Amino acid sequence: MLADINRSQSLIGAQIDDVHKLTGEFAQQVKQFKLILEKIEQLPDDRDLRLLVAAYRTEIDHLNDRFAKLEGIIIQAPDKVLSQAFLKRDLDELKRAAEERITTINLSIDRLNSLFMWAFGGVIFAILGQGIGSFFSRSTRLRPSDKKTEESA
Predict the structure, then answer these.
(1) Which of 78, 41, 73 is nearest to 60 (CA)?
(2) Residues 123-144, mean pLDDT to the nearest whole number
(3) Is position 125 within any domain?
(4) Pairing with 75, which of 44, 48, 90, 142 sits 20 to 30 Å away (CA)?
């Protein structure tokens, strides 16, 4: 139990570090993109280029909003963010357990099938033995006419 808690805490710490690393990389890419746009704005006047810059600027603003929302969610409720990883792990464990149960049930069915086949074969063998035995015992039995001659003697 204590080992599971320690392992969970280390997983949470690693995931938080990964999230911070990814958010830092994302922020760095947005800054680089802004620098590129500022350099493009300094180019000579061209109407199409200005429209393209404006479109990129709105896209950057949209990305910044999404980044801010994501960062807010991570800061406000890190348990919700991290619970997805734990939920996935739990689902994988449930799937593995269900597969093990199915395998066990299949093996049990195979064993019962084998047992039934052996029992059925034994019954058939016994019936055949009885039939063959009764066929050969008829020829060795005395006929009713032979019984009368033995009693009179």
Answers:
(1) 41
(2) 81
(3) no
(4) 90
